[in-house]
Structures are given as C-alpha cells and as structure tokens.
Amino acid sequence: MADLDKLRSQRWLARRDFRSHMHGSRIMQMGYDRKDWEGKPVIAILNSWSEFNPCHMHFRQRVDDVKRGVLQTGGFPLEMPTISLNDSLVKPSALLYRNMLAMEVEEMIRCYPVDGVVLMGGCDKTGPAMLLGATSAGVPAIFLPAGPMLRGNSRGKTLGSGSDGFKYWDDRRAGLITEEQWGGIMSGIARGPGTCMTMGTASTMAAIAEALGMALPGASSIPAVDASHQRMSAEAGRRIVEMVHGDVRPATIQTRQAFLNAITVAMAMGCSTNAIVHVIAQARRAGHAIGLEEFDRISREVPVIANIRPNGTSAYLMEDLYYAGGLPALMKRLEHHLHLDQMTVSGKTLAENIAGAEVYNDDVIRALDNPVYAEGSLAVLRGNLAPDGCVIKPSAMDSKFLQYRGPAVVFDDYPSLKKELDNEETTLTADHVIVLRNVGPKGAPGMPEWGMIPIPTKLLKQGVRDMLRISDARMSGTSYGACVLHVAPESHVGGNLALLRTGDIVSVDVARRSIAVEVSDEELARRRARWVSPPQRFERGYGRMFVEHILQADQGCDLDFLLTAEGSPAGEPDI
Ligand code: FES
C-alpha cells in the first residue's frame, strides 16, 4: 500500500495552506465533498470520445464503467477529455497529430493533480499517442482499448473495414458492381461503435498494448458492444487504483523483453505496417533502443497464425478472434517465443495471464505448424533505394512480387498520380513499378496512408489486382498488396528515392531483404548534385513545429525534442 502522503495529488490537495484551500474549493465547485477525495488516489480517465470519432462513440458511456471500478477500490475518478483522432476523417494523416495528442497527454498529467491514468483510446493513432504520453509522464497507467466493431455485412456478405472497401472500389471501377451495391457497402461496412475489425492498425496496436502488458488480459479483442467490454472497463478502473497503491509505473512494465513480446505477437497477428513506427517510438520513450532490426529478426522466427483479414484468404475478422479465445489464446500458442516472466497491469505475469487460455477455433488461431504465412507478416528491405530501410508485407501480397524487377514510373505528388491512374489511355502496364514520393514524414507531411497506390483503372478492367508499388508513405493496416513503404530517408530530405527517374530498373528480393535501383553510384551522385530540396509545407503553427522536428520512419516519427534523452520524464510543477 502506497504511503498516501506521498501521492502526487496530495501536494495539491492535502496541505493546510492557502493554495490547497483554493484547490479544494475548485473541487467542491463540482459538487464533491472532502470525503470524496481526501486520502484517495486521484485517477484521471483520459477519454478520447468525440462526435468526430465514430470508433470511440461508446466511450461516452464506457467512462461510467471505469468510474465504477475506481470508486469501488477507493479512488477518486475525474474524466479528462483529450483530442480525438479518427483515422478515416483526419487529413492529411492522423499520424501528423499523434505526437500532438502524446504531448497533450504528457502535459495534462504533468500539470494536474493526477496519481494514475486510464487511457481510453483505440482508433489507430490514439492508442500509441496516449501510451507515448503516459510513458513520458511516468505515472501508473492502464490502456483501455475501444474494441473492434462487429463484422460488417451487406447483402449477406461479410465486410471487413478498409480491406473490403478497397476491394469493392476496385470492382466498382472495373464495372463489376452497381451503384446500389456500392451504396450497400457504405451502410454495411461500419455497423456500430468500435475500431476497424480487420487486422488494421487499431487491432494491431491494441494487441501490442496487451502483449506489452499495458492492457488487461483479453482486453484487445473484446468487441466494443459486448457486455464484457463494460466489465473490462470497470476492472481497468479497479486495477489502476491498485497500481497507484503498488506504485506500478510504465517503467515497471515496459521492459525491453516486454517490447520484444509485443513485436512477437504483432508478427503472429499479421500486423499493420504502422506498428513499426509506433513501437519504435514508444520503446525509445521507454528508454530501449529498438529498431527495424528487431522487427525483421522476429519476423523471420515467428509465423502468422491469426487468420484475420487482410492476411490469408479467409473471411475471419476480430469478432472471430474473440470467439476463438482472443489474444490470450493466441499468446498461449506462442508461449515458447515469449518472455513469460514480464509483469503486466493485471498485477500478474504474462505466464499467469495466459495460463488457462484455450483456442476454440483452430482455423482462426492456427497452430504454429499450420500457419497462415510461414514467416512473420513484415519484412525490412535495405539497399541503395532505402539505405535506412523500408517495409513490405509479404503475408498480404501476390507472391510473384517476392522477387521482382521492373521499370519505375515516378510521380512527385498524389494529384498527378491520381490523374494517370484514372487515364483510360495510360501507358502503365502490369509490369511497371509505380513510385510515389514526397509523401514521407516531412514531405507530405505526416506520412499519409497513400502507400497502397490504387491499380490503374485500365489495368483493373484487364483483371490486374496487384503491382509492385514504392513510396515513402505508410499504408492502412487494412490495406494489402505488393507495396514497399516507409522508404528512409524519405525523398523530401534527399533520400535516394528523390533521385529515381521514370525508366530506371528497380529490383526487390524479399528473401534477401534487398531493394535497389540499378543505377551506378556515380550517376546517383550526378543526380544528387542537381537535386533541389522541395519547399517546406506548413508555414506556421503545429505543422511547422512538426516538420522542423519530426524524425524519420525508421526512428519512429517522434519529435526530436520529445525523446527521453532530451530530459527526464514529466518534471513536477511548482505548486
Ligand atoms: Fe477508427 Fe479504423 S477508422 S479504427
């Protein structure tokens, strides 16, 4: 049991001086009495509910379940709204604002009388952002994932977020479905509260939070509308109070081994490529030098066993993973790859969390010797086109591109690319390698999810469904195809991608982990001498701060001044 006098909030509320008197009067202004807070841990429930974020629409009610848990355990809960980032609606990219939310979380914890936090997030960047902020703030924290939506449905067909939108949009452009059918997909693909129910970034990052030990066992796969989600929320409220008493901080849980567990689980899940930038950033905030090497090494060791779209050929979605036993069952299958002695927010080790877990459907959670894909879902490629690395997702692409060589067609911006994709007279063929540049962390800025470059309409009508595509952008976790992403350094800062010309031959060899442009070093040097840096976007405000301080994709896209090495976590304010 923590010494209550040592609680951070007591510095604001427990003294018998003028300032404490004033602070108490402001708490009483909300109708609370002294017995509501005196001698109790103050728990901030950071809620990213917003009417602009349908993935979090149930958080408005769910916060009451968290409060119930906090009150049952003798804490004093106060809800704290945060900005909310809906990955579909925020433009040009929610990643642009991930670090803004992370800063908000860190600073709000720092400046208010907070002893512990429940982080209510889920839609793609919100979870990583909140965990980044809480990691730097350093107070006890527990992540409460929003939970996936139920399966989509239209005309009796199951629909998966993003993946089926992309698939049927290709069919629409190829003239294979009617306007009415297309309208049915719009109304049926997102049927209620929760995050994308494919193995997109939201599902990936929730699973990573659980594997890391920062979310309760099983929390990441519970559908948003399931009553279990309410019970899990109340349990999160109970646990955070106990964690404050036990002084269990993120640094206790987020060890290097815990991050390796998280990467292992991500690979077995067939994770979103976005996991890379978020995990690297968070590990670095926690003080661990984890980079692309760890992802590639673990990818070679761990097969994809979650048979969830967009991996594999099944129609299974997160709802099916939940019924199959959820993440604890998947981790049970992986136990020989995991560091089981790691402590988690449940107050138990990972081994204890998964001790009784069972798989109820062997086609959804495959056995290790019957995987969806024999290696992990991601591969890190390097070569003269990406000296600092880039990423491809072999588990969700046509295998003929695992080793490929073809002529590049280069586009400097999205509008000119789009015009050519829609051009019925285009000279692009299925053999070409489509390249989009200036869409990286600084160039776009914010590295939008434009990396799954659409197949040209003319080729779609010929039945082409995959091509090799290369960019310094990201792609949605719900996307698929032979898309080389996160090319680092990006073209905007003078990476070799900026020197590529239409007609250059590009080669990719996933087994060798290589990517190259077949142009001599001397010719690249000549081109570099003539290269002119493009103008910076965003002249003012947060966007300007972002482009002046953003790190490259292989370093997690954090802001350089937020790195832990830049200063100690959350210095205490003078009160
Ligand atoms: Fe919110 Fe996909 S748009 S999780």
From TrEMBL:
Its EC number is 4.2.1.9. Residues 40-353 form the Dihydroxy-acid/6-phosphogluconate dehydratase N-terminal domain. One of its GO terms (molecular function) is metal ion binding. Keywords: Iron, Iron-sulfur, Lyase, Metal-binding. Residues 363-557 form the Dihydroxy-acid/6-phosphogluconate dehydratase C-terminal domain. Transmembrane segments: none annotated. Belongs to the IlvD/Edd family. NCBIfam families: PRK06131.1 (NF004784), PRK13016.1 (NF009559), PRK13017.1 (NF009560). PANTHER family: DIHYDROXY-ACID DEHYDRATASE, HYPOTHETICAL DIHYDROXYACID DEHYDRATASE (EUROFUNG)-RELATED. This is Dihydroxy-acid dehydratase. It comes from Bradyrhizobium macuxiense.
